[in-house]
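Fold this: L-ascorbate peroxidase
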Amino acid sequence: MGLSDQDIVALSGGHTLGRCHKERSGFEGAWTTNPLVFDNSYFKELLSGDKEGLLQLPSDKALLSDPVFRPLVEKYAAVCPWSLLSRVWRFIGRQVLIIVCSVG
């Protein structure tokens, strides 16, 4: 699909929002204690290990066992969530707002 390792870990961070529903996926629960807030808590919760009431799928746990993915998880867990937005360009008029996200 053309995704880099960093893209895959960042995309997994989308689990910070929402929850799984058993009737749709076979899994039940939220990944974070506050699934209505977009922040880096998914990465923090993942690093802290299993917690009662929070969901960690095998694909989530695989991020920690992979020698390339784990340092990225640690990096995202350590930074202020809004510092992930390192550059923002705003085009005025008929142009679109473009946000480029990167870390490091």
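The domain at 5-79 is CATH 1.10.420.10 (Peroxidase; domain 2). Residues 69-78 form the longest helix (10 residues).
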